[in-house]
Inverse folding.
């Protein structure tokens, strides 16, 4: 019955069919309340919903939405004071598709403010705690979604991945996190951070469950001009593709100096398991990997500074009290509405785009982006997938990196290149180091999600890292 929530989506669908569509959602809501100490939720979803047909693929399955997906009639904050009072008049494409498939939204998960961060500590609503160790961060920015899945509250949750925000928290919380190809899933109704990088994704217990959800949320949407028109594959049917002969590129730069020895060892052991299962490991180089962080931290803030210009206290967002002039209205509303990290990024982005600096920063970053994408093209001429640690370390302590933006950015060193190149990638639990989860990242060529999910599924059939749970909390 309600323990179906712990067994994955297939069990959930079956339980909802046998015991009624509301049973699992009621249990998920109870668990969300019991895990209040995680601070994983910003708001609960109390809307009454139209019932989907019993045969819909996710009928009666509860899930949580990252609070940067617009929910019609339900407050959507982006974890910012700026949007503290924002009730969207429409639903995101992802939300629409999930509810048409019968899934039941139980609430909105906490995140770094406007999805800017790697630890979930920039949220206006306070940090999320990692269910494996409450003194540690869950990763970010989809930290609430990762914690909610890891704690067993919901069997899956949505996330958005601009530079690693699905994969890195998945790694820190010991769950499976999928970032699809840019354009595979519509961004309609996902509040923009950096539009050329933003990508809706899924956090769940297994690759099989990610496949099930991706099959529902993927597909063309004319409301998103960058949405891909190509047909959606049957990801579930493709899961059993054999590993024999699969060439996995072991990306040398992803095992660089900042990687904790225990993380490197766990990932090497996972790769050895792949070899045992029939895959062939091929050492590869990605010569411009070192440019990923600098390029990303110019392009993402540049796009953010443009996207966040709309929050001026007039058209959107928080408005200050008693403005003395139009300029006072703009400056005070923005200073009050945005937190420190978001303000810092707007300043950097505005600077990088300003006349006289554009060529030195933004244009150079775009050239680096091209080189990074070409590295992947060259690598995929030799291998089918690329592997490495998702993050260089396990979950760090709350507060440990807050005051050091460079140390924080290092948490994204292995994830941001994927967004710059628009590729699909996922993180799967691959071991434990000092009692904390380690994630293995697999990267595939554009639109090869079926191959990616199958390779992850095969590993999960042979290992049980994805079944490990944080302690024996209720
Ligand atoms: N940590 C990265 C950043 O702060 C990635 C965030 C994301 O993917 N949304 O920009």
């Amino acid at each position: 019955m309600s323990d179906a929530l712990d067994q994955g989506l297939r069990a959930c669908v079956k339980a909802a069919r046998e015991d009624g569509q509301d049973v699992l959602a009621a249990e998920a809501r109870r668990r969300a309340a019991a895990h209040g100490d995680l601070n994983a939720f910003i708001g609960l979803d109390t809307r009454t919903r139209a019932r989907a047909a019993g045969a819909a693929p996710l009928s009666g399955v509860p899930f949580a939405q990252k609070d940067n997906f617009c929910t019609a009639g339900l407050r959507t904050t982006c974890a910012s004071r700026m949007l503290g009072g924002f009730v969207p008049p429409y639903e995101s494409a992802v939300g629409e598709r999930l509810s048409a498939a019968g899934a039941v939204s139980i609430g909105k998960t906490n995140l770094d403010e406007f999805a800017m961060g790697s630890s979930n500590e920039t949220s206006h609503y306070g940090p999320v705690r990692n269910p494996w160790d409450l003194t540690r961060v869950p990763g970010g920015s989809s930290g609430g979604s990762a914690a909610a899945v890891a704690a067993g509250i919901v069997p899956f949750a949505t996330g958005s991945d601009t530079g690693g925000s699905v994969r890195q928290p998945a790694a820190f919380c010991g769950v499976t996190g999928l970032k699809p190809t840019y354009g595979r899933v519509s961004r309609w109704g996902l509040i923009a951070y950096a539009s050329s990088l933003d990508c809706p994704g899924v956090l769940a217990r297994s690759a099989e469950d990610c496949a099930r959800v991706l099959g529902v949320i993927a597909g063309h949407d004319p409301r998103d001009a960058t949405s891909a028109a190509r047909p959606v594959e049957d990801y579930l049917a493709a899961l059993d593709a054999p590993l024999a002969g699969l060439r996995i590129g072991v990306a040398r730069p992803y095992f660089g100096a900042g990687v904790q020895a225990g993380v490197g060892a766990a990932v090497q052991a996972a790769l050895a398991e792949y070899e045992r299962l029939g895959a062939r490991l091929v050492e590869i180089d990605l010569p411009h990997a070192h440019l990923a962080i600098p390029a990303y931290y110019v392009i993402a803030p540049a796009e953010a500074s443009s996207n966040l210009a709309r929050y001026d206290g007039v058209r959107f967002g928080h408005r200050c009290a008693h403005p003395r002039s139009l300029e006072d209205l703009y400056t005070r509303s923005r200073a009050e509405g945005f937190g420190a990290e978001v303000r810092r990024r707007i300043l950097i982005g505005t600077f990088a785009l300003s006349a006289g600096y554009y060529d030195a920063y933004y244009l150079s970053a775009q050239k680096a982006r091209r080189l990074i994408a070409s590295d992947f093209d060259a690598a995929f001429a030799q291998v089918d997938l690329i592997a490495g640690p998702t993050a260089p370390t396990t979950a760090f302590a709350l507060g440990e990196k807050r005051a050091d933006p460079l140390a924080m950015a290092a948490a994204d060193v292995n994830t941001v290149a994927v967004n710059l190149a628009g590729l699909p990638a996922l993180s799967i639990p691959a071991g434990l180091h000092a009692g904390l989860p380690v994630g293995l990242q697999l990267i595939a060529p554009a639109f090869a999600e079926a191959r990616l999910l199958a390779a992850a599924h095969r590993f999960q059939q042979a290992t049980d890292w994805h079944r490990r749970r944080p302690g024996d909390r209720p």
